[in-house]
Amino acid sequence: MPFRSLSIIEPVVKALHEEGYTSPTPIQAEAIPIILEGNDLLGCAQTGTGKTAAFAIPILQLLGAAEKRNDKKRKIRSLIVTPTRELAIQIGDSFSAYGRHTGLNNTVIFGGVNQNPQISALRNGVDIVIATPGRLLDLVNQGFLHLRDVEILVLDEADRMLDMGFIHDIRKILAMLPKKRQSLFFSATMPPEIVKLAATILSNPSKVSVTPVSSTVEIINQQICFVDKGNKNSLLVHLLKNQDIRTALVFTRTKHGADKVVKYLQKHNITAAAIHGNKAQNARQRALANFKEQTMRVLVATDIAARGIDVDELEYVINFDMSNIAETYVHRIGRTGRAGAKGTAISFCDAEEKEYLRDVEKLIAKKIPVNDTHPFPLMDHNPVKTPKQQGRSNSGHPGPKPPASGKPKWGYSRSGKNK
Ligand code: AMP
To answer: Which of 40, 99, 354, 363 is deepest in the core (most CB within 10 A)?
Structure first.
């Protein structure tokens, strides 16, 4: 189905073609007509599904191709609230790309950096603001912007915003918006507190739900390497001897772990940098830019920092540590194999992590093939239990437990259908 059949205006269709998009993804095909009709939307979808374009395209269209205007008279007519600076930047880039022939402009507001460039962008006049909650409120409170003219609100990654403790900020932002507006609400998961929050924001919403990550999971070549904890670094260097791996995104559970991996790789002449919450904003952006341009081979990330990292043509994800939360595995490997591209996800699993692997296999409802040809096979089969592990029951794991039915929370199934 071409974009034109969704009645998308020519300037946007042209930009989408320039981006190399030929047809809408499932969430775009479903959500765009709903939004264009002016309805509120509750979208259950995560990064990797094309959800940014699913809201950006109709917003650009609804705000209308800008006629010649006095830039300073632009009003903030759409507000996108998102949890992390990386996501905010990526959403801003998407609006700029898809809207490049519309005359509409956008600016991105996030904390951890000097506020002055953001203030001057606002002073110059802006149609669309993409913001993280804290800095947005800060600038509103200082009087640098107001939200009285917002016609379309997007709450992006609502579950993550709640996890990160932004609920009070979100409520404050909501109170500043006009009551009469269109609201779009996206969340990867729909636990009860999210459903409750959505009900207070949306009016008679249409619902759209896609779980393509499960189909992404199907197309990704997944492998498990059983390995002793102390050999994980050596195994990583061994794998990276394969020059077919042009770039790899490596996940560690902790920031400290990420830094240690980077040091080890650098010692072995492999270009690498870490991206996590302790890094300065410009260091994170530089690392991400170098990685995207493939001038740096390995980006080592923790889960929070990696959420929303969007790298086209990323072929390899390596889980240096298994996450103790099974859903995180799906998020991590969903960074590769996007938009029909090839993808390989290699996970290192030591003796202690075997129970996390079992949780993952239950969630994705399949056994992950084992790579037993690498030179660092697991020798120590008896995990040393931490006091925390010893203290808990056999059935549980430290992360959220799967629902009692054993059914995955997001409805992943072997068939990849949304339940
Ligand atoms: P998102 O879920 O918004 O993070 O998007 C995931 C990736 O899909 C991004 O790299 C987009 O550039 C890409 N993408 C979004 N829509 C399309 C489309 N219709 N065709 C091809 N790629 C797309």
So the answer is: 99
Q: Terminus-to-terminus CA distance in the chain, angstroms?
A: 25
Under DSSP, the state recorded for 267 is H
> What pLDDT digit, counting tens, does each position of 176-226 carry?
999 999 999 999 878 788 889 999 999 999 999 876 444 556 678 999 999
**What would the DSSP string read from start to end of 172-189?**
HHHHHS-SS-EEEEEES-
Cα 288 to Cα 80, 282, 305: the distances in Å are 22, 10, 11
Residue whose entry in the numeric block shows the structure tokens 């009087």: 143
pTM, 2 dp: 0.61
Bridge partners (DSSP) listed for residue 186: 43
DSSP 33-60: HHHHTT--EEEE--TTSSHHHHHHHHHH
Helices assigned H by DSSP within 230-280 = 232-240, 255-267
* d(C-alpha 171, C-alpha 67), whole Å: 34
- Atom 1, ligand 1: which residue's CA is nearest? 50
Residues contacting residue 179 through CB under 8 Å, at least 6 positions apart: none
Report pLDDT digits (tens) over 330-348. 878 877 876 556 789 999 9
Compute the distance between CA of residue 145 and CA of residue 240 in angstroms, rounded to an integer: 48
d(CA 96, CA 162): 28
Residue nearest to atom 10 of ligand 1 (CA): 312
**Encoding tokens for residue 195?**
């459903």
Q: Which residues line ligand 1 (CB under 6 A)?
A: 21, 24-25, 28, 47-53, 310, 312, 338-339
Q: How far apart are CA 37 and CA 43, in angstroms?
A: 16
Bigger pLDDT: 417 or 300?
A: 300
How many residues in the chain?
419
Rounded CA-CA distance 276/418 in Å is 32
Is the predicted pLDDT of residue 405 greater than 50, yes or no? no
Give the pair of three-digit tokens for residue 359.
């949780």
Ligand 1 centroid to residue 339 C-alpha, Å? 7
DSSP structural state of residue 119: H
Q: Which domains does the chain have, with CATH numbers?
A: 3-209 (3.40.50.300), 220-411 (3.40.50.300)
